[in-house]
């Protein structure tokens, strides 16, 4: 991992979190316990602060950045899919942000909401609790089913397990 202080602000990473050596963490960032931060993730707490709650996964290639003098708060048990771009105000607990989704300034993703792959949530938009939003611009198309919630919770547990597996079993070869 490449960790950088920025204007005296130093990232704080829980000892039970896993941050891949090729991730970049800058400035005012807090990463909670049992989080998984994948290769190529960039978490920039330079303009504003970023907080990632326990057991959340930031998959490979994600970019997280806060607006100037504001914060980006990511709850617990959240999954941010590969290549997602997160510039929002808040993602609440158990939300799922699928591959390549983009969250604009001040957007809020409420608890158990799902943002579909490639969706673009515009600035200031709120995606309500338990809803599924897709498209560009993202629009709510349905309520997440209990079956979908169970699948996403299973995926979240896999990432917590992966956190520990990487800490024990990953070894750079070249």
What does this structure look like?
By secondary structure, this protein is mainly β. It has one domain (2-169): Hexapeptide repeat proteins (UDP N-Acetylglucosamine Acyltransferase, domain 1, 3 Solenoid), CATH 2.160.10. Helix content is 14%, strand content 37%. It is built from 1 helix and 20 strands. Strands 1, 2, 4, 6, 8, 9, 11, 12, 14, 15, 17 and 18 form a 12-stranded parallel β-sheet that branches. An 8-stranded mixed β-sheet has the order 3-5-7-10-13-16-19-20. Strand 19 and strand 20 (139-143) form a beta hairpin. The chain is globular and about 45 Å long.
Keywords:
UDP N-Acetylglucosamine Acyltransferase, domain 1; globular; single chain; 20 strands; mainly beta; 1 helix; 174 residues
Give the arrangement of secondary structure elements.
Layout: E1 2-4, E2 12-13, E3 18-19, E4 24-31, E5 36-37, E6 42-52, E7 57-58, E8 63-65, E9 71-74, E10 79-80, E11 85-86, E12 90-91, E13 96-97, E14 102-103, E15 108-109, E16 114-115, E17 120-121, E18 126-127, E19 131-134, E20 139-143, H1 146-169
Parallel strand pairs: 1-4, 2-4, 3-5, 4-6, 5-7, 6-8, 6-9, 7-10, 8-11, 9-12, 10-13, 11-14, 12-15, 13-16, 14-17, 15-18, 16-19
Antiparallel strand pairs: 19-20
Radius of gyration: 15 Å
Shape: globular
CATH architecture: 3 Solenoid
Number of helices: 1
CATH superfamily: Hexapeptide repeat proteins
Could you give a quick summary of the protein structure above?
With 174 residues, the chain is mainly beta. It has one helix and 20 strands. The protein has a single domain, classed as UDP N-Acetylglucosamine Acyltransferase, domain 1.
